[in-house]
Write a structure and sequence with these properties.
about 775 residues; alpha/beta; about 10% strand; globular
Length: about 775
């Protein structure tokens, strides 16, 4: 083997040497091709220093169209993701942050602060490339919106949502037309006809952003509630109506009169009928064949993209804009959820992550906030915003109430339908490109869009608090009176749900008269597709529900989508006033232990490796130590962190006793012994805490009740912990051992780390934990 590698190296060395020699000879003989500069003329390249030549090359490369476009994309993505992250942290849709990122990079801020840099980065002649890419992104995005609409589902809910969705279009549309009568003369007279202007102001008042609304519903955990279903269905129906109406408005605006637009509208009707009655059945047959990732290859993806591009081109040719054709192409795709999900997965990430931020920045470049520069203009902007909010709210909430919805749900629907976001920006940009919306009105409408989208989440929360507080308080008092111990299990990984439920059943059943378990699963990222959300919810709870049936534990399932996973868990635990929060941590100690074994003879290196790994022991990966501390410090209830080390069942158990503050663990040991007949517990009293007779009472009581199943040890032998199946340890003890760099934590079994909240740590909770916080030894 060594001989073979040696021969290969020798051969490769000879090849390199020969190539180098022949290259040298070649360039020596090519000197005769060099042309000398004429007398008196200095070669600037030769006169310049090598570094100056290098800088000149960099400047030249940067000025090229391709390099400048890439630099623009880098800047746009960095700023848009940063603002999206900030707004997600405050519970707002990321789209608001991305819209603001576009305005920040535009002349309103970046152009004011650094005009030279702005003019270089976004020079007028370079904006054509951004525009083309943003339009491609919009075509793909509207295709995705069409894919997310299920015509069958819309038909089934049409009776419930028809009045709500269409009233939310008609009333604000009429309000916008009335408003346009008062502002046309001052802003648009001489630029466009009143008919076109009034129609575009009307349609801009009527838009609801279905994708943003769906994600707010997801984040609020309302997807499977009656409110969530009605809101999403109404927004979806409204989207279809609004885009058909927009197509008609564009046709009228381009032709200049209603009569002339009839030809365009007639062509559009024929095209829509052709797509629905001829193309859709054909695609449905193809979808049945190509409905999984194995057969949905690149050729078929190319075919469906061809259908998309052809549809967009035809509607652009007819005169109703390419985006309507893209939307229609998505609607007629095969109505097979699995097929549509595969198609969305292939397209959505690149469209939403790369292309849409370019559109936001292009919009921001056209948004000069400085155009609204007088109190009168700001007053007009306020009136526009007020008309938009009032029209949508009245057009949605009143019909919902008439249809029999509760006051709370009616108000919530009115607020949700005011979400405009990206869909509104698309309409506004179309109006600006066609010369119908003057720049000042465009800026006012952009401000209205941001404001109405921004207020949706906080106003929805206010309504929820006003109408839920009394009901939740009554439910809470009822559970307390019935002696129900309410546990929230938050599972990050659905596979961890079953063992966590077993642990909750074994350790917590018996704290009060009965055990009530709610299982929470949060999908990180508000960009999760609504169709995916339904699938994730079903798949996430499938196994844990099966485990609940076998354990005979009644559970409730909650599913949420949010960027702030930790905050979502804590808010749920505190808002619904759970008694115990159980979160999971999948920790691998085998790798640190293995590395430690390799370097066991080099003590300083061993200590260095351990120090670097120490902060990852508690929560490596997605949940680190600081995030776990967030649960402990912000939850109003006791918290258990379950470390899953290939958990199978609880048999031999360790109760780790470090100091007198750990004595509360005997309460959990008591329930564990009572609920699991096969459990044996060994107490590791490493600091001789049980010498104190008072502190030893709970141990002695358990020893008397279960004489053959309780024991204690003073010394902790190496590797003795991992030989057990389960361990109970206090959070403060775990934290102390972690900070000390103790080797004990390098080899442990599946562990439940518990932080007990005392009654004084739970503000405004009255006596809800009075029984649970009594000194532990009094129970025995």
């Amino acid at each position: 083997m060594k001989s073979k590698y040696f021969k290969a190296c020798v051969f490769f060395g000879l090849v390199l040497t020969l190539c180098a020699v022949f290259t040298y000879v070649l360039f020596q003989h090519s000197a005769r091709f060099d042309v000398e500069s004429p007398a008196g003329i200095t070669n600037d390249v030769e006169a310049a220093t090598p570094f100056a030549v290098f800088l000149d090359s960099i400047h030249h490369n940067l000025a090229e169209d391709g390099a400048l476009l890439l630099l623009q994309i880098v800047a746009i993505l960095l700023v848009s993701r940063f603002f999206g992250f900030l707004f997600a942290k405050i519970g707002q849709p990321t789209v608001i942050g991305e819209i603001l990122a576009g305005i920040v990079l535009g002349p309103s801020l970046f152009g004011k602060i650094a005009p030279d840099a702005f003019n270089f980065l976004f020079s007028p002649e370079s904006l054509g490339n951004i525009y083309i890419l943003s339009q491609i992104g919009l075509v793909l995005f509207m295709f995705i919106i069409g894919l997310e609409l299920d015509l069958g589902s819309l038909k089934s809910k049409l009776g419930e949502t028809f009045v709500i969705s269409n009233s939310s279009i008609v009333i604000p549309f009429f309000g916008g037309m009335v408003l346009s009568y008062f502002i046309y003369e001052d802003f648009a007279a001489g630029q466009t006809s009143f008919l076109s202007f009034s129609l575009f102001i009307g349609i801009s008042m009527s838009i609801t952003a279905f994708p943003v609304l769906a994600r707010i519903v997801q984040e609020k955990g309302l997807t499977r509630t009656h409110l969530g279903t009605i809101s999403i269905a109404s927004a979806a129906n409204g989207d279809v109506t609004a885009w058909c109406l927009l197509a008609a408005v564009i046709a009228i605006a381009k032709t200049g009169s209603f009569v002339s637009s009839l030809y365009t509208i007639a062509c559009a009707v024929v095209y829509v009928a052709l797509m629905l009655l001829v193309v859709r059945p054909f695609l449905k047959r193809i979808g049945k064949i190509y409905s999984n990732t194995e057969v949905l290859n690149k050729s078929m993806i190319a075919f469906f993209l061809l259908v998309l591009i052809a549809s967009a081109f035809i509607t652009q040719l007819i005169g109703i804009h390419a985006l309507f054709g893209a939307f229609l192409a998505g609607v007629i795709m095969p109505p097979i959820p699995k097929f549509r999900m595969i198609l969305i997965e292939r397209i959505e990430d690149i469209a939403v992550t790369l292309f849409l931020p370019l559109f936001f920045v292009y919009t921001g470049l056209n948004t000069e906030i400085g155009l609204v520069n007088t109190p009168q203009l700001w007053m007009i902007c306020g009136v526009i915003t007020l008309v938009a909010i009032a029209g949508k709210f009245v057009g949605s909430a009143v019909p919902a109430k008439i249809m029999g919805e509760s006051t709370r749900d009616s108000l919530s629907i009115g607020v949700l339908m005011n979400t405009r976001g990206l869909m509104e920006l698309i309409v506004l940009n179309i109006g600006l490109e066609m010369g119908i919306l003057p720049p000042t009105i465009f800026v006012m409408l952009v401000i209205m869009t941001i404001f109405t989208t921004f207020i949706t989440t906080p106003v929805l929360s206010v309504i929820d608090k006003l109408y839920s507080r009394k009901r939740d308080e009554e439910e809470y008092q009822q559970t307390q009176a019935q002696g129900i111990f309410r546990v929230l299990i938050s599972m990050g990984n659905p596979e961890n749900g079953r063992p966590m439920l077993r642990v909750a059943k074994s350790v917590l059943d018996g704290v009060k008269k009965s055990l009530d378990v709610t299982v929470l699963h949060i999908t990180p990222g508000t960009d999760t597709n609504p169709m995916h959300g339904e699938q994730f919810a079903d798949e996430s709870f499938e196994k844990v529900k099966a485990a609940a049936r076998s354990l005979k534990v009644p559970i409730q399932a909650r599913y949420k989508v949010t960027d702030n996973v930790q905050g979502g868990i804590v808010r749920t635990a505190n808002y619904y006033r759970f008694d115990f929060l159980l979160v999971g941590a999948s920790v691998s100690f085998s790798e640190p232990a293995k590395r430690r074994y390799i370097v066991r003879n080099i003590k300083w290196l061993n200590r260095l490796i351990y120090r670097f790994q120490k902060r990852a022991i508690f929560y490596p990966g997605t949940l680190i130590k600081d995030k776990t501390r967030y649960f402990i410090e912000n939850s109003h209830c006791s918290v258990g962190v379950f470390v899953n080390r290939n958990f199978r069942s609880i048999t031999s158990t360790v109760l780790f006793l470090y100091d007198e503050n750990d004595v509360f663990l005997f309460r959990y040991a008591r329930y564990l012994l009572k609920n699991s007949p096969d459990v044996n517990i060994v107490v590791y009293d490493v600091n001789n805490v049980l010498q104190n007779k008072i502190l030893a009472e709970p141990y002695e009581a358990l020893k008397a009740t279960y004489p053959n199943r309780m024991s204690k040890q003073m010394k902790l032998a190496a590797g003795s912990l991992v030989r057990n199946s389960f361990m109970l340890i206090a959070y403060r003890t775990w934290e102390t051992l972690s900070e000390m760099g103790s080797d004990i934590l390098l080899s442990i079994p599946s562990t439940l780390i518990i932080n007990k909240k005392s009654r004084k740590d739970r503000p405004n909770f009255d006596d809800e934990y009075a029984d649970f916080d009594e000194p532990v030894f009094k129970e025995f």
